[in-house]
Amino acid sequence: MGLSSFFKNLFGSTKESATELANSAESTLEQVKEAAAPYVEKAETFVEETIDKVKEVSEPIIDRASEYAEKATEAVSDVIDSVKEKAAALTSDDSPELITETVVDASEIGDEDDGKA
Q: Which of 42-51, 58-67, 73-82, 108-117 has the lowest average pLDDT?
């Protein structure tokens, strides 16, 4: 019986130690949260201010970029229209017909007549 009481005491004290450790960790976590709260608030404020500054600085750049995008779109559109017009002119029925001629070398004709068999 001494052995069973030994194990009961051993495991019982371990269970109590684990519970005390968990309670201590929970208490420490709460203290850390309270200590970190002002830093978290400062970090949030810093992030919000930084985002606002980035928006202010980038707004004129974005406006200029959109102006250039519009100009580029117009230029590309003009090029496409010009290519379409030229392609239409080349494929339309109004385009001049190509005339081909067969040219015969007269000296070859004379050589055939001289070689009568």
A: 108-117
